[in-house]
């Protein structure tokens, strides 16, 4: 049998022979992967149903090799999704994806039965994107489950899902989600074109797709956003973006991406707009601190001491008189030490990871100051910078800021404030030149779109955000009735 040759040495592929109860008896075989489905489902739910129902067929219905597949599909297996096929490769792929194939001896066609997805991880709260107020469900590794989480939030036939198979060996399913009439047709076609061009043997996760479809592969900043929150994906779809779900990974990709969207959190849209705006302002302040605070400190203490108040300068002179290293060396060493602690905390088990990073930072930081290797200034600055970096919602954006911080420190050590300004100008020019699927990375700031500023540095009230972002949702710009306003209390009756 050709099928047995293909699945040779595949111990998890089960070939279960059985006989149809008819005159004359017809031999058949069921093929399925017991590693993908429960063997009871493959044998009892299907084979037992066939054996029992065959005996109860009307007397005028006679099963033969030519009509067995049709009868099984129409009358015996009506409780599950079935399909008959003559394509041998389709049958093999279906078995490897967790289906059951029923082959009738002497029939040119086979019946393939879908028995549901294999068991996976339960839906839990996303670890990387926690919120105080908002839904607690997060994506899992099964893309069917992830699609259902999106459908629960967007119950519309305009939500379209297109499947693409990527990977010559892994045959990983990639699902494109968008809302018809809101997402630009050119954007949808561009996403499909880039994914269809991927020629690779296996797709281990969404990170592979991200690297293969990004506009600039060597960009330090992420040009494709990812998230494991269904509410964030649903919100992005409503803005005219396209979501890319990859099977076997909970991280869903969002395109196009802007720098401002990386600093937005799902919780911003669940809190009252005044509180959400205040938190966003704090977040932008933390971004500037995480990027510039160490470099500015090095520049001031190395080249611009006149800025420091006299009393504070006197304390600094006394404490730094016996220190062996200049301030920029101390800051670089402390930054590198903290990055090592951060990485160690991530790799260690969750129960002790935070303890190691916190205790290690406190103990070793205090020990280096007491031993006279570094002053108190670098420890304070690095600690403040570390706390500020945790306020950046997107991990990839935070990593880019961490890398750029080292470059600014080196520029500040050699050129002072001029070096810091040159570094910031270079970063700004670089960001202005980035594009994500044709959308400027700094939009709606550059190019300026005043109508879209309502959801950037602050979050305007919902009744004030009447339109979608101009560069992604221009096809259907109206988000609500233009006459919509805040609901006023009704007048009481006498």
Keywords:
single chain, five-stranded antiparallel sheet, 13% strand
What would you call the quaternary organization? Answer: single chain
Q: What's the gyration radius in Å?
A: 30 Å
- Described by the principal axes of the CA atoms, the overall outline is elongated
* Largest sheet features: 5 strands, antiparallel
Distance between the termini: 87 Å
Specify the number of helices: 16
Residue runs with pLDDT of under 50 for 5 or more positions: none
Average pLDDT number: 85
Question: How much of the polypeptide forms β-strand, as a percent range?
Answer: 5-15%
Concise description?
This protein has 494 residues and is α+β, with helices and mostly antiparallel strands. The chain has 16 helices and 12 strands.
Describe this protein's structure.
The protein has 494 residues and is α+β, with helices and mostly antiparallel strands. 44% of the residues lie in helices and 13% in strands. It is built from 16 helices and 12 strands. It has helices at 2-6, 39-54, 68-76, 88-96, 143-151, 185-196, 206-213, 230-238, 259-262, 273-303, 310-320, 327-347, 350-371, 376-389, 395-415, 417-432; strands at residues 13-20, 26-33, 81-85, 100-104, 110-114, 159-166, 172-179, 225-227, 242-246, 252-255, 435-436, 439-440. It has a 5-stranded antiparallel beta sheet, with helices on both faces. The longest helix is centred in the middle third of the chain and has 31 residues, at 273-303. The protein is elongated and about 105 Å long. The N and C termini lie far apart (87 Å). The model has no long low-confidence stretch (mean pLDDT 85).
């Amino acid at each position: 049998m050709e099928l047995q040759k293909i699945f040779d040495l595949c111990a998890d592929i089960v070939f279960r022979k059985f006989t149809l109860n008819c005159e004359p008896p017809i031999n058949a075989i069921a093929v399925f992967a017991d590693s993908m489905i429960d063997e009871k489902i493959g044998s009892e739910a299907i084979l037992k149903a066939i054996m029992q129902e065959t005996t109860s067929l009307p007397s005028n219905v006679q099963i033969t090799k030519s009509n067995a597949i049709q009868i099984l599909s129409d009358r015996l297996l009506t409780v599950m999704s079935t399909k008959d096929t003559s394509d041998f490769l389709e049958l093999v792929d279906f078995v490897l994806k967790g289906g059951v194939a029923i082959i009738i001896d002497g029939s040119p066609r086979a019946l393939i039965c879908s028995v549901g997805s294999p068991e996976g991880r339960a839906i839990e709260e996303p670890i990387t994107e926690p919120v105080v107020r908002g839904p607690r469900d997060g994506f899992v590794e099964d893309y069917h489950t992830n699609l259902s989480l999106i459908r629960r939030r967007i119950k519309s036939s305009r939500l379209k899902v297109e499947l693409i198979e990527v990977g010559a060996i892994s045959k990983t399913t990639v699902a494109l989600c968008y809302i018809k009439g809101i997402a630009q047709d050119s954007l949808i076609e561009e996403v499909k074109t880039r994914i269809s061009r991927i020629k690779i043997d296996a797709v281990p996760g969404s990170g592979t797709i991200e690297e293969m479809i990004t506009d600039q592969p060597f960009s330090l900043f992420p040009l494709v956003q990812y998230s494991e929150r269904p509410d964030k994906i649903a919100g992005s779809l409503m803005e005219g973006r396209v979501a890319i779900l990859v099977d076997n990974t909970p991280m869903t990709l969002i395109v196009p991406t802007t720098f401002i969207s990386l600093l937005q959190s799902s919780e911003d849209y669940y809190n009252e707009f005044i509180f959400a705006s205040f938190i966003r302002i704090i977040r932008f302040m933390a971004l500037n601190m995480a990027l510039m605070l160490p470099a500015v400190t090095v520049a001031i203490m190395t080249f611009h001491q006149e800025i420091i108040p006299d009393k504070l300068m006197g304390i600094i002179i006394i404490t730094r008189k016996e220190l062996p290293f200049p301030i920029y060396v101390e800051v670089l060493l402390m930054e590198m030490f903290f990055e090592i602690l951060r990485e160690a905390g991530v790799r260690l088990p969750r129960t002790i990871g935070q303890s190691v990073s916190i205790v290690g930072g406190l103990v070793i930081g205090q020990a280096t100051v007491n031993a006279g290797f570094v002053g108190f200034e670098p420890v304070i600055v690095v600690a403040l910078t570390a706390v500020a970096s945790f306020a950046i919602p997107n991990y990839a954006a935070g990593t880019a800021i961490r890398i750029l911080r080292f470059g600014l420190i080196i520029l500040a050590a050699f050129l002072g404030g001029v070096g810091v300004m040159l570094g910031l100008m270079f970063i700004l020019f670089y960001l202005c030149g980035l594009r994500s699927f044709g959308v400027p990375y700094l939009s709606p700031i550059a190019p300026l779109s005043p109508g879209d500023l309502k959801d950037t540095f602050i979050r305007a009230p919902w009744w004030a955000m009447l339109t979608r972002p101009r560069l992604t949702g221009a096809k259907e710009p109206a988000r609500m009735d233009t006459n919509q306003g805040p609901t006023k209390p009704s007048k009481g009756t006498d």
